[in-house]
Amino acid sequence: MNAPHPPWQALAAEDLRALAWLHTQERPPEVLAALYASGFPATLTLVGADAAEAQAMDAALRALASSRCEEDAPGALPASSADELAADYAAIYLTHALRASPHESVWRDDDHLMLQGPTFAVRAFYRRHGIQVSDWRARADDHLVHELEFVALLLERGDEREAARFLKTHLLAWLPDFARRVAQRAATPFYAALAGLTLAACEACQRRLPSVAALPPVVADGPAGAPGCG
User: Fold this and answer.
1) Which pLDDT score, from 0 to 100, does residue 199 have?
2) Structural domains of the chain, with CATH
3) Alpha-carbon distance 161 to 166, whole Å?
4) Of the N and C termini of the chain, which has fewer Cβ atoms inside 10 Å?
5) Which of 68, 67, 142 is nearest to 107 (CA)?
6) Distances 88 to 25, 80, 147, 161, 185 between C-alpha atoms, Å
7) d(CA 117, CA 104)
8) CA distance 80 to 43
9) Which of the residues in the chain have pLDDT under 70?
10) Residue 117 in contact with residue 107, Cβ under 8 Å?
11) Is the Cβ–Cβ distance between 201 and 40 less than 8 Å?
12) What is the spatial distance between Cα 74 and Cα 69, in angstroms, rounded to a whole number?
C-alpha cells in the first residue's frame, strides 16, 4: 500500500525552510546548480511551476547550471559569476547598499531603524510559543530568515491560526516592500527571483490558512532584557 502523502502544512513548511536556507547565507553557483538539478523550484508546494515567480527562479538557476556545463540555451539569461552573486548577497543582507533590509523593524519603524518596537513584538510572539533565537546581535529576531523559519515551525505544529496571525501581523506587513525593492535593485537574476518567489510562497501560504485579525502593536522589552538569536 502506498504511504499517505504528507499534509500540506508539512510540505509548505519544507518550502519555507528551503527559502530561508537560500536567504541565510551566500550560496556558490555550484550549490545553486545542484539545487536546480534536484528539481527546485518545481518541487515547491506553495508556488506552482507555471507561476511567474517560479519561472523567474527557474530561468536564473538554469543559467547558472548551463554555465557550469558551458552550454548556453538560446534566449537564456546570462549566468552570474560567483563574485557577482557574492556582491549582490552582501548588498542586500550585509552592507544594505540596496537599502532593502531583511529586518522587519527597518521597514516598519518610523525612523527605519533596527532593533525597535517591531523587533521586540516579534520576540514576544516567539516567546508565547516557547521560541527564542540564539544570538540576536548577529541576526535579530525580525530577520527574514527567522520569520520564515518560525512560520514553518507553526505549520509543523499544526497551529494554523497562529501561523496566519504571524504572517498577517508581521511577515507580510513588510515582505512585499522588501521583495519589490530587491527585484528592482538586485544586480543578479537569482536574488531578484528569490525575493519574488519568497513573497509568492508566503502569500500562497496565507491564502490556505484561516482568516484572522492582526495583533495590535505590543510594547515589549528592549535589548537589555532580551534573550539571544540564531
Assistant:
1) 99
2) 8-225 (1.10.3480.10)
3) 9
4) N
5) 142
6) 11, 10, 22, 36, 10
7) 10
8) 23
9) 1-6, 67-80, 217-230
10) no
11) no
12) 15
Give the dihedral sign, CA 18/19/20/24.
positive
Buried b (16+ CB within 10 A) or exposed e, 67-85: bbeeeeeeeebebbeeebb
The type of residue at 53 is E
C-alpha cell at 64: 547558472
Q: Quote the cell numbers at residue 183.
A: 527585484
9: amino acid identity, one letter = Q
Position 216: which residue type? P
3-state SS of the chain is CCCCCCCHHHHHHHHHHHHHHHHHCCCCHHHHHHHHHCCCCCCCCCCCCCCHHHHHHHHHHHHHHHHHHCCCCCCCCCCCCHHHHHHHHHHHHHCCCCCCCCEHHHHHCCCCCCCCHHHHHHHHHHHHCCCCCCCCCCCCCCEHHHHHHHHHHHHHCCCHHHHHHHHHHHHHHHHHHHHHHHHHHCCCHHHHHHHHHHHHHHHHHHHHCCCCCCCCCCCCCCHHHCCCCC
Question: ∠ at Cα 127 (126, 129), nearest 5°?
Answer: 70
> Could you tell me which of 216, 226, 156, 189 has the C-alpha nearest to residue 76?
189
Residue 212 to residue 67: CA distance in whole angstroms: 46
- Tens of pLDDT, residue by residue over 142-170, are 999 999 999 999 999 999 999 999 999 99
